[in-house]
Description:
Blueprint: H1 2-21, E1 25-27, H2 30-41, E2 50-59, H3 63-76, E3 80-97, E4 102-120, H4 124-134, E5 137-147, H5 149-171, E6 174-176, H6 180-204, E7 205-213, E8 217-224, H7 235-258, H8 261-288
Parallel strand pairs: 2-7
Antiparallel strand pairs: 1-6, 2-5, 3-4, 4-7, 4-8
Amino acid sequence: xxxxxxxxxxxxxxxxxxxxxxxxxxxxxxxxxxxxxxxxxxxxxxxxxxxxxxxxxxxxxxxxxxxxxxxxxxxxxxxxxxxxxxxxxxxxxxxxxxxxxxxxxxxxxxxxxxxxxxxxxxxxxxxxxxxxxxxxxxxxxxxxxxxxxxxxxxxxxxxxxxxxxxxxxxxxxxxxxxxxxxxxxxxxxxxxxxxxxxxxxxxxxxxxxxxxxxxxxxxxxxxxxxxxxxxxxxxxxxxxxxxxxxxxxxxxxxxxxxxxxxxxxxxxxxxxxxxxxxxxxxxxxxxxx
Length: 289
């Protein structure tokens, strides 16, 4: 039984060796890969990789002034404003006519702004407290902490393994059968380096999303009346134009009647004939008596 078990183990070892020989790498020293794995497994962190994010929604007296104060506060904490958008739109508008040429427009404007700020994580609470003190009312305040330690460990282990493979390949201990394999490993090495740096940056700097607004502002302004239907000329000019229009209307009526002169003549003749016939009928009964 012991001999059969030994034969099975030897057969498995030969099969494993043959599979490794058919892979994309041919190793000259097997203990190098074991050393790399042991070195990778021994990776430790100096501290946990905690990523902090926060958001704050509040109202202020003046949005523009608050945005300037927040930017100055971010610079004071060695932070950076990565996004700033301020908008204002009219909710209600009314136009009051002052005179023929001018009107007064009264509008109620609503103003709000969005900002995204990156501040050092150790100063996050202090920064949030000072920003909240700038407002007149805090409507919402949130903070989330995400532990990225395992993701960072995974990236670090992959990075160490790829570094070890590249080192062994340069020393000639590992030979690549396909030239494009070297490029693939180097690209993967760069990806892991970027990923670890991205996590380090997220741990070092926290992202804060701010949304703040102010009460509606009523604005009055006198502007030019652009409604041409309201335009009227001076009184005497309009009186002269009216008299001229009356003369023109009278002449137009005369000219229009002149176009029907034949009908007018026929009508006059018919009217005379009818009048004479009517007169004869009224005179005859009187002569009989």
